[in-house]
Design brief:
- Helices cover about 80% and strands about 0% of the residues.
- The protein has twelve helices and no strands.
- It has helices at about 1-35, 50-55, 60-95, 100, 105, 110-125, 130-155, 160-165, 170-200, 205-210, 215-225, 230-259.
Amino acid sequence: MQTQRAWMEWQFPVFVTCVYLFLYIPVVILMIFSFNRGDSPTYWLGFTTDWYAELFASSEVYDALSNSIIVAATSVFLSIFLSALYIFYGRASGLNSLLPLFYLGLAVPEIVISVGLLATFYVLSLPLGITTLIAGHTLIGLGYVVPIIYARYNELDEHLLEASYDLGATRAQTFFYIVIPFLFPALLSSALLVFIISFDDFVLSFFCSGPSAQTLPVYLFALIRSGATPMVNAISTLMLVSSAVSVGVFSWLQYGREQ
């Protein structure tokens, strides 16, 4: 029994360590080879930062990055605004019964949603571009934002809303001066989460972007198809760092809200 107990005590930590090494060693290798002097993605030929300089000087990378930021920022605004309106006004009008529909965005595979949106855009004769990208990313973002904001809104004391109405405030004034400040921590954490998901999304962007509005993940995929170079590693490293910072801020906000 003692031998078995000792085995179980160190077996699980070793297993967890192996899993994390399997996940993060490729990331570390990618970051190291983003500073490789040569064109080879597998042979180390010396340290250099030329690939990052070339990356920042590329107009194509700048256009793809601009598209990603525009789409992510607009999707964040629309997801947050529509979610807050739906939750606040939906309770009074009885539309909260439709809340389970928003979970479908999390349950349905993203490839299915992407194909469905693409077919819808073709039926409506909408050209693929920034507009269709924003529509698709907003749809995905609502599936994450609505449950978070709804959980926070249920903590709001109804007496605060009643007092606001008794003092002569309109529904719009109550929404902007009572509900929004109360929901602010949830709105901020939801905004960061949607921005991360939108900025890193590939599947939906690949189907809905079209040739004139490539996002950074789609542009990265095109580079890989033409041949892997350290520039691909440099782009991936910058995306990894930005996503890690956003996730860290999101986790910090979630921890602060729980406390």
